[in-house]
Amino acid sequence: MSDNLVSFTAVKARGWTPALVRDFLGEPDSLARNPYYRSGAPVKLYALHRILAVETTDAFNAAKEAAGRRSKSAKAAADVRRQELIAEIRAMVVTVSHVPLETLMRKSLAHWKANARSGEWRDGSDADNATRGRWAVNYARHHRTHYDTALEAVAGRVGIGDAVDIIRAKVYRAIADAWPSLAAECTRQANDRGVGMG
Hints:
Number of helices: 9
Strand content: 5-15%
Helix content: 55-70%
Structural class: mainly alpha
Radius of gyration: 27 Å
Strand order of the largest sheet: 1-3-2
Number of strands: 3
Shape: elongated
Order of helices and strands: EHHEEHHHHHHH
Distance between the termini: 54 Å
Largest sheet: 3 strands, antiparallel
């Protein structure tokens, strides 16, 4: 790449937003083959002398400052929405539709059988205790709590990653409290997902 041409990425590294590039530089001065993907979009190149000239103008600097303010405002608004979601999820009460443990084990086995892949080598009744416990916790999570509904409620919202972790921790804790013999499996699954049970 010529020293007189810089990539779109390099322009952004100078503090330009895509909108500023569009408004003040327009079309690229040249295109280069994508160095990472043969079938990828070509790399847009801009003449450095044009960039430097634009950066000295009052119009550009005013637009750049306004863009910075909008970015800070957007980040602040996103932080507020994230905190609101986290507070909402922390206040959420997870309830369990309780049944005796034997019933839960029976229902989770029936659910596993109904959803087993074709050609499974066993019907599930000879599964070891750890496997049966895993099935029971999975069944309880999806069918004895409002776990799936809670996940749907946070989909697409700012802060979803943290919210999902809190929901999972609450659900595992509720299952462990409802069926203490499944507490170890709840802890194992929570640890596997990188969430504590509180």
